[in-house]
Amino acid sequence: MLLIYPAYASYSNTETADYLRAWTSRGSGGRALQPTWLWYGSLLLPALMCAAAITLAYVLVPNMQVVIAGPGILLLAQVLIMQQHRIKHPCRWANPVFLGLFVAGASYAAICYIIKLSPVIMADSPQLNYLCMAVIVVLFPMLALLLWKDPGRVSQSRFRGDRRHSNQSDGITENRDDDLLTKSGDGSLIGGSDADVRHGCHGSGEVATIADVASGRLPQECFCGFCEIIMPERTKHCRICDCCIHDMDHHCLFLMKCIARDNHRLFVLLIVTMVIAMIAFLCAVYRYVTLVYAGRNFLEKVVAAVLTDSVVSIIAVGNVLTLMWCFGLLRFQCGMIAIGRTTVQNLQLLRQRRSLRYMSLRDQIVNVANFIVGVKRHCEEPCCDILSGVYKEADRKETV
User: For the whole model, what pTM was predicted?
Assistant: First the structure.
């Protein structure tokens, strides 16, 4: 049992953890213990269940598709409710079922439009058809780029700077060190002041070590016991990704990736594109039902669409629910961007019940504009720059 213990799930020496990971990949008789088939099965589960329900509905009861398609979708919902953010295996890999649900939903909506809706509404609403096709062409490459792009992983301790100011008021160590920088996964310098990074300010060039924490030059919370590095400012260790993330906003289960400094803007742009795509799809469904079931009143059209076009109806209902969720998420993200915070920072400040300084509408607009063009945002409070350490308490409470 020692060989399959998830060493990375607790504080441990990095070298020891590497040895344990290597041994866990070797099973008895040379068979690997890593659940590759379980992982891929979870990823494909939503798509396979939807495909089975659609196929059986069209083949067995084409005039009463809701009899099979409806229970199939309810069964899928029940399976998803029982899922957790990690697969049920000692390796504790991240659960890909939510990513599979997101990709399958977007894919089935696009296929449904191309095969069912587009041929019917093309002549009646050519502008709407062009809009839907354009959104489909843009959405999937954007999603692929977001899944591929590094969110801002931190693999090395930050550099030791010369300027440092500490403030112990309110029981919080405020380390406003503009020259403490680090290197991300792609080798770029991050941390400290973004302006200093862009102008090539590398501090003293010496890497901070645990000795700086032991001597009191840096607060204890700056040390990450998982990665064994000195974290830069605005950094949090994600226990699902098993790495430190710079300027982390949140971990998205539907993308199985952290949303942070390097992909936050692309994430918001993806949400906006999804909102446009779902509104266009719902408009296309309305035109489709109006044209196919012409000559009937509104209630008869709805009943006929549910019974004989259950796939279109179910995807439309899913789009309505997802659209409401995306509106709420987009509103929250814009609110956080306007006041210069990330989601994690906002939760920590609310937990501390700190008094917040009022930001004018002009400053909020400047924050949003700077975010769009990729310029550093204004911070609402000085403590927004030093929240890398105070995340530790939240990490300990997280269910792993």
Answer: 0.77
